[in-house]
Amino acid sequence: MDATPAAHLVGRVSALLRALSGVNEAGAGTAELARATSLPRPTVHRLLASLAEEGFVDRDRRSGRWFLGPELYLLGGVAGIRYDITRHARESVHRLAALTGESAFFSARRGDETVCLLREDGDFPIRSFVLYEGARFPLGVVSAGLAVLSFLDDTEIDAYLAGRDLVGRWGQAHAPDAVRERIAQTRIDGYAVNPGLVVEGSWGMAAAVFDHAGQPAWALTVTGVETRFRAERRPELGALLLREAHALGRTLNTGAGARR
């Protein structure tokens, strides 16, 4: 059945807001958002103008760049009462940053993507800035997305890799066979490793956090420069990630954490 015009419009608006949520504090231009959503530029501009009237997006008058608006902040505060799980993850992220000296993160799966919700930097002075709060990546790209993808059912993995072109944006290292090799290694180790495949020299490691149904719903990550992720150190980092992921999973699936 074809989607109704209203559903079609909602889908376009949703795609636009998601794209805007994935940019950093510099905002995004109209053409940039058009490319990200595969929508015509005039359509994107028209939708943004309508959203701005309602306060869902905001535009800097000098630069012309777009940002999420104050109305979303207010709505998010209300929704956070029911859905915010970052308060449970914050301690795990803090411990990982403190113990490793690297940048630590907590991400959540949203459909075919992971969204970074928390970041805390350790005391090592050189950092990677691939991940930041609000950043979205397809499953199988950064280490968090690889950790989540690796522990999905094989049928779901097959369908995802068959229907998603990761090579066009992320390069040949994200061809299905290459991703499958990393999935196999992640299942052996229990944690995922991204050896600088998104930005050269910027490494990441992640462990999946499972929900009450045993599905990988979140991930804990540490990132840093390549020299901090040498082979002799990776098992130590992996053990820390798995320990925190296991403890956080227990917390999220009991009491208040399970009512998300």
List the helices and strands and how they pair.
Layout: H1 5-21, H2 30-37, H3 41-53, E1 57-59, E2 66-68, H4 70-83, H5 86-100, E3 103-110, E4 113-120, E5 136-138, H6 143-150, H7 154-163, H8 167-170, H9 176-189, E6 192-195, E7 202-210, E8 216-225, H10 234-252
Antiparallel strand pairs: 1-2, 3-4, 3-8, 4-5, 6-7, 7-8
Helix pairs in contact: 1-2, 2-3, 5-10, 6-9
Intertermini distance: 32 Å
CATH fold-level name of the largest domain: Beta-Lactamase
Rg calc: 19 Å
Q: Work out the helicity level.
A: 40-55%
Task: Report low-confidence residues grouped into runs of 5 or more.
Answer: 256-260
Q: Could you state the order of secondary-structure elements as H and E?
A: HHHEEHHEEEHHHHEEEH
Q: Helical element count?
A: 10
What is the residue-mean pLDDT, rounded to a whole number?
A: 90
Major pleated sheet: 6 strands, antiparallel
**What proportion of the residues form beta strands (DSSP E)?**
15-25%
By CATH reckoning, the class of the largest domain would read Alpha Beta
CATH superfamily of the largest domain: GAF domain
Overall number of domains: 2
Strand order of the largest sheet: 5-4-3-8-7-6
| Overall shape | globular
**CATH architecture call of the largest domain:** 2-Layer Sandwich
Keywords: DNA-binding, Transcription, Transcription regulation
GO biological process, one term: negative regulation of DNA-templated transcription
Protein name: IclR-family regulatory protein
GO molecular function, one term: DNA binding
